[in-house]
Amino acid sequence: MEIVVIFALIALAIWSGVAVAYVAGAAAVLAFVFTDNANYLGILPQRIFSQIDVFTFLAMPLFILAGETMTKGGITRVLIDLAMLAVGRLKGGLGYVNIASSVFLAGISGSAVADAAATTNTLVPAMTEKGYRADFAAALTAASCVIGPIIPPSIVMIFYGALMNVSVAALFAGGIVPGLLMALFLGAYNFWTARRENHPGGADTIQPPFWATIVRAVPALLIPVTIVSGIVFGVVTPTEAAGLAVVITLVLVFGYALLDRAPMREALARTAALTNAAGERTVMLTGSIFMILFAAAVFGYLMGLMRVPEEIATWVHGVGLNATAYFLLASAILFCAGMVLDVSMALVLLVPVLIPAAIAGGADPVHVGVVSCLNLTLGLISPPFGGCLMIISAASGVPYTRLSLAILPFLLVQIALLLLLILVPEITLALPRALGLAH
């Protein structure tokens, strides 16, 4: 009964428009009183700071800074041009470019929101101009941006790894194959739609200059290669890799300015201005994330006092659910929560409550982590409150209700992949096991 009241308080406050971090924190504090645990409130400051005193969390603001600098510094445009060279002349080529661009950008920003903001203004108008329906172009952009948090580096996976004490390197390795499969599934749907709706494409498609694009793109591709290989093979920690990503991104932005024949002083000034702008955005995003972490620490402490995870595990054992059956049930709950909650908030509120029982039942922590991150990320493109849908609707001019309908076929394709990953853990675990990062 107490759990129902807690979540009812959270839902009521969110419905009233209060920021989610304040909602969770206030609801949890009130729940301490309601459940006769008020005597534990004095220890909350210590619990809050111990919850966020995790070295891995330092990687998040650095990856955010790298992604913001990349977007403002023109690296996004370079990677889109590379995708255009690779698949732009196929039938429905701009759809493939949209998907491929998200794969390239995923290796740098690690954020679906950053991906959506970076590609919408460029790709949706280009697709519409060539004859694609505006709602299809916007929906494909939304669907493909989900690849961002799955292919490493992933801010969501860093968050999950620190929260659940799972190796971030193993999670990163586990996300590579599912992320590429996501691109393959979306590409197959684009292939079918291109023939059904006769989308443009062919040898007469205008391409960016070959050698100029290659010269600019190859250094940009060094960022994800350096990050992923460094973390997976144990050369650097996720935090060190994030710092390295920032340095490489700044060097590239400066180098691109020099390639544009800007004088040295002007190139330095341009890079400094971009860094300042990206830094301001990074501070705002990081502050909001850590506010959610504060609230999560309070809520998580209460759930521990009430022994909620243990009660769930006892219930699972009592009804005879195996690890896969329970994980399907937990995944359904996470998916529904992702439709109405911020990804970070849903992660910190529900994962520590629902996931331990799956692991206790025999599920692999890496498999569960990767699939849970993908599951919650799908909430960003799920009506009624999908964050990426709102961003893309505002940037593209496609009405939100129209975009919410257009995204449904893509969402069904991605849910099919999610179910496949749940039922066949080896898809996720093959690479981490080959690298010695999972059992």
Overview of this structure, please?
With 439 residues, the chain is an all-alpha fold. The chain has one domain (37-434). It has 21 helices and no strands. The chain has helices spanning 2-15, 20-34, 44-52, 59-72, 75-87, 93-106, 112-129, 134-145, 155-164, 168-196, 210-232, 238-259, 264-305, 308-319, 323-338, 343-360, 365-378, 387-396, 400-406, 408-423, 425-434.
Gist of the model:
With 439 residues, this protein is mainly alpha-helical. The protein is 77% helix and 0% strand.
Which helices and strands appear, and what pairs or packs with what?
Elements: H1 2-15, H2 20-34, H3 44-52, H4 59-72, H5 75-87, H6 93-106, H7 112-129, H8 134-145, H9 155-164, H10 168-196, H11 210-232, H12 238-259, H13 264-305, H14 308-319, H15 323-338, H16 343-360, H17 365-378, H18 387-396, H19 400-406, H20 408-423, H21 425-434
Helix pairs in contact: 1-2, 2-13, 3-13, 4-12, 4-13, 5-6, 5-11, 6-7, 6-8, 6-10, 7-8, 7-18, 8-18, 8-19, 9-16, 9-17, 10-17, 10-20, 10-21, 11-12, 12-13, 13-16, 14-16, 15-16, 15-17, 16-17, 17-20, 17-21, 20-21
Q: Could you name the key traits of this structure?
A:
439 residues; mainly alpha; 0% strand; globular
Query: Helical residue percent?
Result: over 70%
Cα-based radius of gyration, to the nearest Å: 22 Å
Kindly name the structural category: mainly alpha
- The number of strands is 0
Order of helices and strands: HHHHHHHHHHHHHHHHHHHHH
Note the gap between the termini.
39 Å
Q: Give the amount of beta strand, in percent.
A: under 5%
Domain tally? 1
The largest pleated sheet is described as:
none
Helices, by number, come to 21
The shape is globular
